[in-house]
């Protein structure tokens, strides 16, 4: 999970809300104080949601560098699970800094995946008392992880749904703006291409301003549909102007031959784009 453009921790509303009830059930079933969900980031594991029955041990937002976490041991395990009677005595965990900090003993964690099977993070429980977890306990935790994976999918779907529209804004006759927001997947790419080309043909467009300031890049890959769209518009005799290239986009695309070879004007903002065409924004007196 190396993508810095995915949902932030605060965007998983369904997961955070529903997990509270699930944590209570897990805590009761396994007789543990603490249950929590972590999310794997570029270099650290961060607690998205947590439940502490009595003593607060794991707060939400708690973050640990990936190499020093129990989560790394869980995710790398063939069974995608890890349990220990006592973290302070287990040879795999006793030397970890987090063990010294938390002073916990009983622990059980399983890998948490999203609906596509990609590792999202972990679902874990821990307690200050020594705990012996059975195979049935491990299977129970894996079942709860499957439930949580559907909530992750729901949050991701809701996030992407907000960006499914293709907002084309007419400025004056012959000039329109396309504002790109969010992530462009394959389905949305087809929608954008079809809508833009159809709109341009039906409205006799001469200039199309493409604003990329809200674009989220996935895994460092610039969406090919935007390159194809610019080339298609140019074949139709429509001049394109790209605005809103963010520092993140610029860093990722500095070596993108296709993007750099596009015969299109790039400017910093909408005002500069309109000025290039020959229009100026004036303040109303």
From TrEMBL:
Pfam families hit by this protein: GAF, STAS
- Please report the stretch or stretches of sequence annotated as the STAS domain: 165-277
Q: Which residues form a coiled coil?
A: none
**What SMART domains does this protein's entry cite?**
GAF
> How is this protein named in the record?
STAS domain-containing protein
Q: Which organism is it from?
A: Halobacillus andaensis
Q: What is the lineage of its organism?
A: Bacteria, Bacillati, Bacillota, Bacilli, Bacillales
């Amino acid at each position: 999970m190396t993508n810095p453009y995915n949902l932030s921790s605060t965007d998983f509303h369904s997961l955070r809300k529903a997990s509270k009830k699930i944590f209570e059930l897990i805590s009761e079933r396994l007789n543990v104080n603490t249950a929590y969900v972590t999310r794997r980031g570029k270099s650290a594991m961060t607690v998205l949601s947590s439940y502490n029955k009595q003593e607060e041990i794991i707060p939400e937002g708690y973050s640990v560098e990936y190499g020093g976490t129990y989560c790394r041991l869980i995710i790398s395990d063939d069974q995608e699970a890890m349990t220990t009677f006592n973290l302070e005595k287990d040879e795999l965990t006793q030397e970890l800094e987090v063990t010294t900090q938390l002073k916990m003993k009983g622990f059980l964690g399983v890998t948490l995946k999203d609906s596509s099977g990609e590792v999202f993070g972990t679902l874990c429980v821990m307690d200050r008392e020594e705990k012996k977890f059975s195979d049935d306990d491990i299977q129970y935790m894996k079942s709860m992880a499957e439930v949580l994976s559907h909530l992750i999918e729901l949050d991701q779907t809701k996030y992407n749904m907000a960006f499914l529209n293709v907002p084309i804004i007419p400025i004056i006759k012959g000039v329109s703006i396309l504002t790109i927001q969010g992530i462009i997947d394959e389905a949305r790419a087809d929608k954008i291409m079809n809508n833009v080309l159809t709109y341009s043909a039906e409205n006799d467009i001469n200039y199309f301003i493409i604003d990329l300031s809200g674009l989220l890049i996935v895994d460092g890959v610039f969406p090919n549909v935007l390159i194809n769209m610019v080339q298609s518009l140019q074949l139709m005799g429509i001049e394109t102007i790209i605005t809103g290239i963010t520092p993140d986009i610029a860093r990722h695309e500095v070596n993108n031959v296709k993007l750099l070879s596009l015969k299109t004007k790039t400017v910093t903002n909408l005002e500069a784009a309109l000025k290039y065409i020959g229009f100026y924004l004036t303040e109303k007196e």
